[in-house]
């Protein structure tokens, strides 16, 4: 099933998308009173998951408050993450190569250890919401389509073979990045953590919605032009490895968001680089989850 945070008639709520993708069914109509997606992730029972899955297959006239998709305003599924996002750097080989070229570094084709970093987020950017360009300090704004994993229950010292049991679901994020800030400050926190730099959505696809591990197509477009086109089967370090490794000595709480890295085709990978400018529209699409589109603002 696919879960959303949405707004209709100036009221926010949680919903499940109908299986045909045309309707949103409010969770309140199914006697679920969760106020936020974070609360749902932390507390939802197996029987409630089964009810949501069943309800998503029903005709809209059977569900009180069912709303056509085009009449609602989708928000980021987790608008206010409890923690910063855990990110993977250069986790596709082709992106590792283009990143090394941009930085004029040697790359031997090996990536023996995963690169982890934190992405600052006060509020996630909703689908359709503008991305601030921060032109006073940013001259080279870039995009990165990524599959994000959402942890479903507390995870500590989890074997790789059991990771699936700890995953709630998946969403799309655009790891918006300011390249010069990354290089000037010798790390990625500032250049990737500015306000508005975490577009997220359009939904959370629960772990059972996709095959496991999820080998799905991931793409980005700028003004309709295809820029990134890859598949998550090409992750250097897969989801089992990532979650298991992080959980060795680091407790992952329910609702933790882990961005698994971006494939080749980002703006800095072109010669000359093709960075974003105000007015550009960036779309990030992942098979089985959907698409988020955001316009770069002045």
Report on this model:
The chain has helices spanning 37-43, 46-55, 93-102, 179-184, 189-192, 239-247, and strands at 2-8, 11-17, 23-26, 67-68, 73-74, 85-89, 115-119, 131-132, 141-142, 145-151, 167-174, 177-178, 200-206, 217-222, 225-231, 257-259, 281-286, 290-297. With 298 residues, the chain is an alpha+beta fold. The protein folds into two domains: 2-74, no CATH class; 85-297, Fumarylacetoacetate hydrolase, domain 2 (Alpha-Beta Complex). The strands form three sheets. Strands 1, 2, 3, 4, 5, 6, 7, 10, 11, 13 and 16 form an eleven-stranded mixed sheet that branches. It has a five-stranded mixed sheet with strand order 8-18-17-14-15, with no helix packed on it. It starts with a strand and ends with a strand. The mean pLDDT is 96. One of its GO terms (biological process) is carboxylic acid metabolic process. GO terms for molecular function: hydrolase activity; isomerase activity; metal ion binding. It comes from Enterocloster aldenensis. Belongs to the FAH family.
